[in-house]
Amino acid sequence: MLKIDKLTKAFGANKAVDSVSLDFDRPMMIGIIGASGAGKSTLLRMLNRLENATSGSITFDGRDVTALHGADKRRWQRDCAMIFQQFNLVPRMDVVSNVLHGTLNRRSTLATMFNLYPSEDIHRAIDILDRLGIAGHAAKRAEALSGGQQQRVAIARAIMQDPQIVLADEPIASLDPMNAQIVMDDLRRIHDEDGRMVIANLHTLDTARRYCDRVVGMRAGRVVFDGTPEQLTTGVARDIYGADASFSEAATSTSIDALNAATSTPVPVA
Amino acid sequence: MAELSVHSPTSDIRADYMDLTRRKRVYNGVLLAIFVALMVAGFITADDRNAGGFWDGLHRLFDFPAEVLGEASEKLSELPAHFVTFFPSLIETVNIAGAATLLGALCAIVLSMLSTRGLARWPRMIPVFRRAMDIMRALPEIVVALVLIFVLGGGPVPAMIAIALHTSGALGKMFSEVNENASLKPVEGLQSVGASWSQRMILGVMPQVAPNYLSYALLRFEINIRASAILGFVGAGGIGYDLKNAMSWGQGQYDEAAAIFLLLFGTIVVVDQISSALRNRLTHGARLEATL
């Protein structure tokens, strides 16, 4: 279904993504983990074509995505929704308008400029917001919402695109534990209920273990782990992050459950 | 109210939002209609009062450029000689603009700091400094220059002062808008160590806003080159004086006029290239520092 072949992105002499090959044969929920600067974001940005690959190819259902240009490229971007760490909504526009932006690829510039969206689209946008539990904020400006609510608006915009793939670039890194769980549950629902492929960059291992069907570990631009959540042991995690034996997941875990596990081993303050 | 709407069923939310959208669309439609009506009415009024008539004159729009270009191409061989003749006055014009931009920008920095909420030394004086800048912007350069030329005699200095005055007002407003977007956190940090107001501005605000200042100042420099050329028409010297002579003597001198236009165009291109290179360097340097 989605096949990435020797994908490379170089910034000067520096390779952010180095010859990454991955193959996903059916829609599933995939977590990509790795330290900051391991190339996770660049990989997702290349999938969405926000960034051009230096070499290698991305193939989706037999179509070479890396070779698309102009309208074809924008068409692909519609099929491959992106969710950002900082939400990337238009802050001064109302929530429903932000969700309706998911249909921009289908509508003419003139019609969207004067905010002339069809009534069915507006109804559908509100239904999606209702499904995510934030329909009550429909008429508010996006900037008036909390971080967790804004991220759910971003998810609604992604669903509005009716995409085949949803990419999420550290979707919960700016959120508190409670909102993080709501957002991850929503992403899981997009996969379970709509059958869309979800690829999420994650910073927390317990999140990757709990929500994903498959976990990919990256280090310095290369894939160093590719397997099931069960195979992701602490030892493997140390390899991915290049950490030594002092590395403890519980020390920085944001999961509320991890509190109980961590209380017995207090972290010394330097 | 917010609580109520959160718990109301989707159909209500739908209806409310559709109402809102419909109302917005009506407002937008009315505004668009008023805009179009005003444009059309304004054009008709202006065209009626016009001595020649817009449509009758339209086809003659390119007569003058065609005449200039025609004559210049006939005497193409004389152009390099004209370039050499007018180059010193071009330098004078650019000098007037450069000195005026530098002086005006320095005044503008101080004025902008004094008139930005959150940064001002004396917050109550903000309106005073704002109005002062308004006055500087409102007075046309040419009026200031004419008065100064009358008092100080013709030459580059009155022109420089006139342009600098306008520049402080114009750049001061732009700089103050840039200042408003600067983060107050570094300023607070410096305040916490006991820094004076000037230290806070120079060390806390300037590093954040310098790239934006520079690009506005360089844009202003381009505008000032043109302004100082215009002031040459009223006796401030420089290339404007030569242009006035070339144009007022009419046919037979158009090759000189064309040479002067080309020189001015070339100067603007050069300034534009230099300013974009400088700006790139400044932002690129900042990015390098950020990654270190």
| Number of DSSP helical runs of chain A | 11
- Proportion of residues in β-strands of chain B: under 5%
CATH topology category name of chain A? Rossmann fold
Radius of gyration of chain B: 26 Å
Task: Using the coordinates above, name the CATH class of the largest domain in chain B.
Answer: Mainly Alpha
User: Main beta sheet of chain A: strand number and arrangement?
Assistant: 6 strands, mixed
Note the total helix count of chain B: 12
Oligomer: heterodimer
Structural class call of chain A reads alpha/beta
SSE run of chain B: HHHHHHHHHHHH
Per CATH, the architecture of the largest domain in chain B is: Orthogonal Bundle
Percent of residues of chain A in beta strands? 15-25%
Low-pLDDT segments of chain A: none
What is the number of E strands of chain A?
Answer: 10
- Note the overall shape of chain A: globular
- How does the major sheet of chain B shape up? none
Distance between the termini of chain A: 49 Å
Organism (chain A): Thalassovita taeanensis
Protein name (chain A): Phosphonate transport system ATP-binding protein
Keywords (chain A): ATP-binding, Cell inner membrane, Cell membrane, Membrane, Nucleotide-binding, Translocase, Transport
Pfam families (chain A): ABC_tran
Account of the 3D structure:
- The complex is a heterodimer of chains A (270) and B (292).
- Chain A has one domain: Rossmann fold.
- Helix content of chain A is 37%, strand content 22%.
- Chain A has eleven helices and ten strands.
- Chain A has a six-stranded mixed sheet, sandwiched between helices. Chain A has a four-stranded antiparallel sheet with strand order 2-1-4-5, covered by helices on one side.
- The longest helix of chain A is centred in the last third of the chain and has 18 residues, at 177-194.
- Chain A is globular and about 55 Å long.
- In chain A, 37% of the residues are buried.
- Chain B folds into two domains: 2-58; 67-291, MetI-like fold.
- The longest helix of chain B has 40 residues, at 10-49.
- Chain B is extended, with a radius of gyration of 26 Å.
- Chain B is 82% helix and 0% strand.
- Chain B contains twelve helices and no strands.
- With 292 residues, chain B is mainly alpha-helical.
- Chain B starts with a helix and ends with a helix.
- The chains are: A alpha/beta (270), B mainly alpha (292).
- Chain B: It is a multi-pass membrane protein.
- Chain B: It comes from Thalassovita taeanensis.
- Chain B: Belongs to the binding-protein-dependent transport system permease family.
- Chain B: It is found in: Cell membrane.
